[in-house]
Amino acid sequence: MDFLGRKLIIATKHNKESVIAPLIEQHLGADWMVDPNLDTDLLGTFSGEIEREDDPLTTLKKKCLLAMKKNNCDLGIASEGSFGPHPTLFFTHADDEWVVFIDKKQDLEIYSRELSTQTNFNAKLFTNFSEFGSFLQKCLFPQHAMIIKNQKDNPTWMEKGIDNYQQLKILAEDSLKKYGAFYLETDMRAMYNPSRMKVIESATQKLMTKISSKCPECQTRGFDVTDVVRGLPCEWCSSSTDSVLAHILKCSKCSYQEEVKFPNGKKVEDPMYCNRCNP
Length: 279
Fold this sequence. Notes:
Layout: E1 7-11, H1 17-27, E2 31-33, H2 56-70, E3 75-85, E4 93-103, E5 108-116, E6 123-126, H3 132-138, E7 146-149, E8 158-162, H4 165-179, E9 182-186, H5 194-212, E10 224-230, E11 244-250, E12 257-261
Parallel strand pairs: 1-2, 1-3
Antiparallel strand pairs: 3-4, 4-5, 6-9, 7-8, 7-9, 10-11, 11-12
Helix pairs in contact: 1-5
C-alpha cells in the first residue's frame, strides 16, 4: 500500500482523532499521530474570539499544512466545519463538514464533504428563565455542551464546555443579576458535540472511499465525481427532468474522465418530478 508505515498527522486539538484514526488504520495503514501543542484555534473559533479570515476550504488546507510542517510529515488529514442555514432546506440548520487528505510525496490533495441536518446548532439571548429548560432540551444538553456569555457580541466574560446543569444555572443567574441577560449557544467544538463528531466521521469515510478510487488511466488516487449530467427521462412522457442522468468522473492528474450513467440505480424518473407531467 502507498501509505503503509508512513507517518500521518491528524490536524486537531479537539479530539477528532477518535473518529478519524480508526478509519486511517482500517483503510490506509499509516502511523497516525496528533500534536498536542497544535493550536488550530489560531485560524478561527466558533465562539468568536478569533474570526476565521478565510473561507472553509482555504482554512482547511492551511490547518493541514500547518500541522504537517510543524511535525515534519508528508501525510496529513484535517477537517473544518461551518454551521448555519441549510442551502436548500429553509428554516433548517446544517453542519457542513469538509475533510482533506494531503500527500506531498505523491502530490495529492483529496477532499470530501458531508452536509448534514443532524446538528444541534442553536443560540438564544435570555432575560429570564422562562424558556431555559426547553432550549437546553432542544440543544441536546447535557450530552452536548453549552457556551454561556453575558451578551452575543463583544462579551466581557464567557464560559465554554459546560455540561453540568447546576453550573450552567449558577452562571446564568449571576449574569442576570449583573447584566440583566445571558446568552447561550451550543459548543460546536467536536469533543463537546457528539452530533458533529458523527458528521466528521461520515465525511472521513467518504474521504477514504475517494482515496481508494484510482484513475483507470494513470492509477492516481482520488478518481471521483467532478460533475453531473441532468436529464433523467420521465417514466410517462420521456421528457428530460432535472434529476441526475450521469456522473462525470475525472482524474486530477491526467484529466482522463468517464461518464457513468444512471448512478442512482434508476433509468427513469417518477412523473411527480417532471415539469411537463407535474408542472
